[in-house]
Amino acid sequence: MSIYSSDRPGGAGDLSRLKIDRTAPKRRRWLPWTLLALLVLIAAAAYPSVRTYYDEQRAPEVEIARATQIAVAADGGSAPVPVLVATGYVVARRSSDVGVKTGGRLQFLGFEEGSRVRGGQVIARIEHADLDAQLAASRAAVAEAETQLAQNLATRDEDLRQLERQRALARDGITTAAALTGAEATSQVSAARVKSAEAAIVSARARIRVIDEAIENTNVRAPFDGVVIKKRAEVGETVSPFGVAGQSSREGGAIATIADLRELEVQTEVGETSVAKLKRAMPAAVKLQAYPNLDFKGRVREIFPSADRAKAIVEVRVSILDASADVKPEMTASVTFQEPPAPRPTGAATSATPSMAAPAVVVPKRAVIDRGGSTTVWVVTGGVAASRTVVVGPTRLDQVEIASGLAPGEAVILSAPAGVTEQGRVRIKGA
Predict the structure, then answer these.
(1) Does residue 110 lie within any of the structural domains?
(2) Can you say whether the dihedral through the CA atoms of 386, 391, 395, 401 is positive or negative?
C-alpha cells in the first residue's frame, strides 16, 4: 500500500490530496527465506554423496584377491591348488579367414553364419562367363588343330610316297636329280607341318587346362571341416584377394571365417613376472563369464616363446578339455592355473576314491601381514577395509592356507599400501 498525491504538494495542512494506491503489488517477505531453506535442504541431502565421493577419491588404490576354497586329502595329498588367475577369450585352435583367389563379383554363396561345412566343399563362386567363353574358344582351337594335323598327316604320307617314286625312278635313271631333291624337300616340309600341328594341339590343350584352373579358382572351398562363425560378404558384391577400397573390415579379401569348434582353447596373457609359475600340460580350471556356474577342465597347451616388451606379458594358450556346445569363440573366460595334486606319502595305501578332509581356504602370501606374532589380513567389504586376525596353516607355492578367520570368497588386500586404515575407504584397482 502506498500513498501519493495527484498534484504537487501544497501546504502542510492540505491532506485532501493524499490517496491510497491499492493496485501496488504486495511485497513477498517470505520468498527469500523459503529459497534459503531450500538451498540448505539440498546441501544437507547432497553432503553424504559429496563426502563419500571425496573420500573415495582420497582413498588409496589397492589390489585384491578372493579367498579360495580347496579340497585337501585326508591322507596327506591334496586337490589341485590355485597358482595364478588370468583372463582371456575363447578361440578355436584352428581358424581360417577364407578368401578368394581371384577378383570378381560373387555369384553364389552357400553358407550363413553357423553353417557347418566340409573340407573341400564349394562355399562360394565368382562369376566366370568370360572364362567359359575362353574355354569354349580353346576347345574349338583344339578341334581345329586336330583337323589341321589330320590334313598335314595325309599330305606328309602323300609326299613320302612321291619321294619313294622319285627315288625308284632315279635308280633307273629316268628322273632328274632336281626332281628327286624337290621331292625330298617337300617331304621334309610336310613332316615339319605335322610336328607344328602336334605342337599346336599340345598348346591348345594346355590353354584349356589353364582356363580350367582359372575357373576352379573362382570357386571358394572350405579348407577343413568346421563352422562358419563370421560372414563377410553377400551375393553381388565385388571381392578381391587384396580387399576392395572402402571395405576395410575384410582382411585380405576374406568372405568368411571358419573355425573348428571341436578344439577350443583360451587365449590369455600372463605377466612376465608370473610366467615362471607355469609349465606345459599344467592343469587349469576354466570359467566362462556367460556361464559362471559351469566349470570346465583345462590344460596348458602352449607358452609362447617370446614376450611382448611393450606390455610385459607372455601369451599362454589353455586347451578346454570338456568343452560343450555352450562354449563359443570370443567368450570371456577366466583361467585358474593349478598346481598338480601333491603325491601321497610313501607307503600310503591307495584307493579308488581318496578320502577328503574338510576343505581349506587359501589366499596369496602377499595378503598376510605378520604383526609381532599376530597374523592379520585386510578384508574389503563394500569398499571399506577392516583388519582381521587369522590363523595360518601350511604354505602352498605362493599361497598360504588359512585355518580360521576367513571365509571363502572374501576379498583381501594384496601388499597393503601405507594409506590403508581401519574402516577406511579404499579404491579397488581395475574396478
Answers:
(1) yes
(2) negative
Indicate the burial class of 83 (C-beta count within 10 angstroms; 0-12, 13-18, 19 or more): buried
- Strand-pair partners of 266: 90, 318
Q: Can you list the positions of beta strands (E) in 30-94?
A: 61-66, 68-70, 81-92
Alpha helices in 92-225 (DSSP H): 129-172, 177-217
**Residue of 335, 258, 222, 250 whose CA lies nearest to 289:** 335
Does an H or E element contain 286, and which? strand 283-288
C-alpha to C-alpha distance for 277 and 296, rounded to whole angstroms: 21
> CB neighbours (10 Å) of residue 251?
11
DSSP string, 329-378: TT-EEEEEEEEPPPPPPTTPPP-SS--B-S-EEEEEGGG-EEETTEEEEE
Confirm if 120 and 207 have CB atoms less than 8 A apart.
no
> pLDDT, tens digit, for every residue of 349-374?
454 444 555 677 888 888 999 887 78
Query: Total structural domains in the chain?
Result: 5
Residue 386 belongs to domain with CATH number: 2.40.420.20
pLDDT given at position 248? 47
CB-based burial label for 371 (10 Å; 0-12, 13-18, 19+): exposed
Model pLDDT, residue 53:
64
Write the CATH number for 270: 2.40.30.170
Range of the domain at 275: 84-93+263-339
Are residues 375 and 325 located together in one domain of the fold?
no
The sign of the CA dihedral 342, 348, 353, 359 is negative
Q: Within a 10 A sphere around the Cβ of 41, how many other Cβ atoms? A: 10
- The more confidently predicted of residues 146 and 51 is 146
Q: Is the pLDDT of residue 34 over 90?
A: no
| Residue range 242-268: mean pLDDT, rounded | 78
- Judge whether 349 lies within some domain: no
- The grid cell for 141 is 582351337
